[in-house]
UniProtKB/TrEMBL annotation:
Transmembrane regions: 167-187
Name by which UniProt lists this protein: Tetratricopeptide repeat protein
SUPFAM superfamilies: TPR-like (SSF48452)
InterPro entries: TPR-like_helical_dom_sf (IPR011990)
Keywords assigned: Membrane, Transmembrane, Transmembrane helix
Amino acid sequence: MMADPAPLDDDAKRAALEHLLSQPGFRASPRNRDFLRFVVEETLAGRSDRIKAYTIAVDVFGRRADFDGMLDPVVRIEAGRLRQALANYYIGEGHLDRVRIGLPRGGYAPAFEAIGMAPPAAGAAAPIATAREPAETPAEPAPPVQAKAVRRDPLSRITAELPRRPWWLAGLAAAFLALLALGLFALDRTRDQVEAQPPLVLVAQVQALSDDSPTTALSRTLSRSLPAAISRFEGLTVIAARPDQSDRDLIAGIFAREPPSRRVYMVTASVKADSRSARAFWRLTDGRNEAILWSGTTDSPFTRNAGVAPEDDIAQTIANAIASRRGVISAFEWKAIPTPPAPGYACVTLARGFATVLTDSLRGEMTACLEGTVAQDPDNAEAWALLGYIYADENRSRSAEPEVAKAALAKAEAAAAKAEALAPYSSLTQETVSVVAFQSGDMQRFEAAGKRAMEMNPENPGRQVVFYNRLFLLGRYDEAIDGLRQAIGRRATPVAMDQIFIIVDLYRRQDYGAALAALEKIQLPNFYLYWLLLAATQGELGNPQPARDAVANLLRLRPNYGAGMRVDFRNRRFEDDLIDRLANGLRKAGLQIK
């Protein structure tokens, strides 16, 4: 019987790292080699508590001190690539390695594993250590919606036995395993390609909870309004049940023609109406296992909005909760997307969620995968629209480099034109046209396209926030703030960033107490505008110490910001009088403004 593996000392672990990094079969990028070296060396130095996304981003990838992992997923993306490089190495050239390094999911601390090693004899040299991700790795958090099962590496047990067998048998087994590994790799790629499809959303007939005429009429009209409202959101394939079709018949028909890998959601609702209001009870379930993923109750008092029919009001509320960028389905879909995302559905889904909160690194990742998507599928209107949106953001963020910004705007205009040619009646297309027009200074087109986008999908509050934020920058303050407040009220869940222009307007109106109260209700510690507004507000209120603290946090995120404050706000198209007011508050807070 073979002895249990002996614990590896630090020298063996260092040898494992150096050996791995010297192997041509370990195909990791230079910065991911640095990533691996950093986490191993920090662990061996007893500093494993420093192995966090922030430290890796700053120390390895050169991110600034204001790095925010929620907005910039570079560490998560590169960790996925590093894990893949390790896995490829160990099913290929490194399959006989006897000591392996892994990067278990759920964190970034390395794990070392000795495979089939007996304790070395006294005085024997330490074996060369190499790396392997543990055979069984906890899956990334994934929704109960058609989540991939965690698969045990079928090669690890067999390769662990190879050193104990005759050399010719080991060689024969190794050749067999190489073929098997290729087959498993191809199978996994095929599975991923099959799974990378937009989910199906099945909408059952709405059930009446009583036999009275108002309730039965509402159930019929909501059965038509609800699937229509959900279908206005991009990235979903919506199928509505026929009036005579039961839930089980609807699902059975879908399962008969769709592959088991495709995710299926089911929306069911029931209603009750009286002379004063209507109430709907709804839930979202996994269509394959009937697990309840979310549920809610929606009320529509008839006096609340005389211009909107109750069935449309209810349908819009449910659709927003389920299908918006920050809705329930998006949350589940994002968890299931591999990193980095492949071109196609996965890329488009991720870009849809991050397009409005781009950082330099995230912009680069999204640009690359979207360009790959349109190269593979030139008729993908949604990918073209998102690409135009991201190019427009690059134009705004690179204004200090005129030639780069000019080229980005030209690409944005071309992508927006392509999206409009392919899908002129898409609300996402019109949103992109609006954003690109704003960047190019065509304010008439900005407003017309923005309003068309909101008319095409009135259930999407995120789209409305984007439009009214830019309208605010044109100096149409009251109109913009009124629209913003209405859009924020339609959010299924609060979004802290939505409050920024509300707070700017309170400051503009010199209501500093209300501005401070609003700032204290949100927490955006890694967003420099939060600290800027807090510093200026505290400065105007005559609170010197809190003002200085806020300035210190602002400078932590944006060193020497006072020198470029005016340029920054002009690039964002703020009106000069508002820039002057903010600069005055910052001076009172102790920041030198040029």
